[in-house]
Design goal:
249 residues, 7 helices, globular, 8-stranded mixed beta sheet, two-stranded antiparallel sheet, 23% strand, alpha/beta
Length: 249
């Protein structure tokens, strides 16, 4: 079994600040999964697509909707599948055991994803379509797989979980890692080991680490705290610029 680099989601994944704003996307069924769809400006084409693979709060959580809307406003069609089928963390009753829930939802999410991806390609794919994928927390291994089989032109991981060495050993496409300095799920030793593997494979990668923030900062950071707000916004800008680089090629 490959050594673990990023552990499964923990207690830090179920806390944070709920943001305010008005989502502008819509929710439709794609491949049997309710999907948040945020369109680019009418002046843009839909030849650039971001697959938004969410944390355990789900793609329909307002914080994640607002991030998807930001990416869309910059010229991308953004698609965020609710692979928790309505059972994401915001819908949990108080005291629900996180690890028991994770054990029950992981396989259905993984099993449903291929059909969802095929539906995406059937509906939005053309010869010119370029796909990118960003995975927050739980979404990270989906992105690593997509970057290993050539499905996307670039990927990004943001405070990832459920990652092992084999993910990096199979990596083929460009990958960005947006990380918190203080993250016991993906600690310093794991980040360095991941980088060692990528260096050894001559991978195309970009590693950013934000001080003063913890796991979850890029989705549920406190906008009233300057350090957290800047890190959250800069992480999103970094992901966007990374994707811009490879969709322009």
């Amino acid at each position: 079994m490959s050594p673990t680099l990023a552990s499964a989601p923990g207690s830090c994944c179920s806390s944070g600040v709920k943001h305010t704003g008005t989502p502008v996307g819509r929710i439709e069924d794609l491949g049997g999964i309710q999907t948040y769809i945020s369109d680019p400006p009418t002046s843009a084409t839909t030849q650039k697509v971001i697959l938004f693979l969410s944390d355990i709060w789900g793609s329909l959580f307002i914080n994640n909707q607002l991030i998807q809307d930001y990416f869309a406003s910059c010229g991308y069609l953004v698609l965020g599948p609710d692979y928790f089928f309505g059972d994401a963390v915001p819908n949990h009753p108080p005291g629900r055991d996180l690890q028991t829930w994770l054990a029950n939802v992981k396989k259905p999410a993984v099993d449903a994803f291929p059909a969802w991806l095929e539906s995406v390609k059937a509906k939005y794919g053309t010869e010119k379509t370029k796909y990118c994928a960003v995975g927050y927390c739980f979404g990270a291994p989906f992105v690593m797989d997509l970057c290993s089989d050539g499905s996307v032109v670039a990927g990004a991981l943001v405070h990832p979980t459920i990652i092992d060495e084999s993910h990096f050993e199979k990596l083929e496409g460009p990958i960005l890692l947006s990380c918190a300095e203080d993250d016991y799920l993906f600690p310093l030793a794991s980040r360095r080991r991941a980088e060692d593997i990528m260096v050894g494979r001559k991978s195309t990668y970009y590693l950013q680490v934000f001080s003063g923030v913890k796991h979850g900062f890029a989705v549920r950071g406190d906008p009233d705290i300057e350090m957290e707000r800047w890190a959250k916004e800069e992480s999103a800008r970094g992901v966007l610029q990374w994707f811009d680089r490879f969709t322009a090629l």
